[in-house]
Write a structure and sequence with these properties.
The structure is a single chain. The protein is an all-alpha fold. It has two domains: about 1-45, no CATH class; about 50-85. It is built from five helices and no strands. The protein has helices at about 5-15, 20-30, 35-45, 60-70, 80-85. The radius of gyration is 23 Å and the shape is elongated.
Length: about 90
């Protein structure tokens, strides 16, 4: 099982390039019969890129919405002009 490998084996996997690592993971996933392990792997992959919106406060969300509306209404400024103004 992947979780019970020795540290030496894990270091060896780290040295592999990303494609080889993906192949090794796929093989081990296909070989395992552990529903618990598969569930942990799935949850880890699902949480790899969590939705930042869920972590924002209501105030932060409101500020973003105001900015979106301003942009949609043409009330925006290029980065170049902001940089010139603040430099």
């Amino acid at each position: 099982m992947l979780l019970s490998q020795s540290n030496r084996e894990i270091r060896k996997l780290k040295i592999m390039n990303i494609q080889a690592l993906k192949i090794e993971l796929a093989k081990r996933i296909l070989e395992t019969e552990s529903q618990e392990l598969l569930g942990k792997i799935l949850n880890t992959l699902k949480n790899e890129h969590p939705d930042f919106w869920l972590d924002l406060s209501e105030e932060e969300k409101a500020e973003i919405e105001i900015s979106r509306k301003q942009f949609e209404e043409g009330e925006s400024e290029s980065w170049k002009s902001v940089y010139k103004r603040l430099a």
